[in-house]
Amino acid sequence: MTTTITLRHGDITTASTDVIVNAANNEFWMGAGVAGAIKAAGGDVVEKEAMAKGPVTPGEAVATTAGALRFNYVIHGAVMGQSLTTTAELIRKTTLSSLQLAEQLKQQSVALPAFGTGIGGFPIAAAARNIYLGIEAFLPTAVSVSTIEIWLYTAELFREFDRVLLKRRPTASKLDRPDSNLAK
Questions:
Q1: What is the pLDDT of residues 75-86, one digit of tens each?
Q2: Total domains, the chain
Q3: CATH, residue 171
Q4: For the chain, which has fewer Cβ within 10 Å, the N-terminal or C-terminal residue?
Q5: Which of the four pLDDT bands, split at 50, 70 and 90, describes residue 168?
């Protein structure tokens, strides 16, 4: 199976994927950043459903409906605990668990956020490397998921992720320029 990985610049709530992933804390209350944008667009129901499924161990993911958003699901990846900080390991684990949950839900396309780079305060280049490592770990098991989009809200995030992914591509993958598509 071929899985395409694409970098996108903009608001993740405007993605045209089956699923979007929220960069969440382990109790799933939704404040600012990606979570705030999803709650604002999807409504309080998204937060209420997510909180009813928490708390979880950081690195795990749960799925809810998308409220007023057009997606089949919102996957909430617990990339941080209540300290609101994260680590390289949590970014990798959360990326992997979010993609595995999308696979279990038989979804074809997933929009991922830049885990850890906002409220989590993690360095952009290190976050990009660890998100990609999580994706790499997932790819051999992909059956349903054929499209992964990484949504980057700022131009700085997009440039840094693009730079890191150019260096990280595995030999089994191909980076198509100029649209930053990475296909396995």
A1: 999 999 888 789
A2: 1
A3: 3.40.220.10
A4: N
A5: low
Tokens 């992909």 belong to residue: 142
pTM to 2 decimals? 0.90
Q: Do 28 and 57 touch, CB atoms closer than 8 A?
A: no
- Domain with 44, as residue range(s), is 4-183
Task: Say which residues have a Cβ less than 8 Å from residue 75's Cβ, sequence separation at least 6.
Answer: 19, 20, 21, 22, 61, 62, 63, 98, 101, 102, 110
DSSP 165: H
Q: Which amino acid would we find at residue 125?
A: A
In DSSP notation, 112-158 reads E--TTSSTT---HHHHHHHHHHHHHHHGGG-SS--EEEEEESSHHHH
**What six digits make up the tokens of 105?**
């839900």
With a cut of 80, say whether residue 124 has pLDDT above it: yes
Rounded to whole angstroms, the Cα distance separating 67 from 45 reads 6
**Alpha-carbon span 170 to 10, nearest angstrom:** 26
Cross-strand bridge partners of residue 5: 148, 182
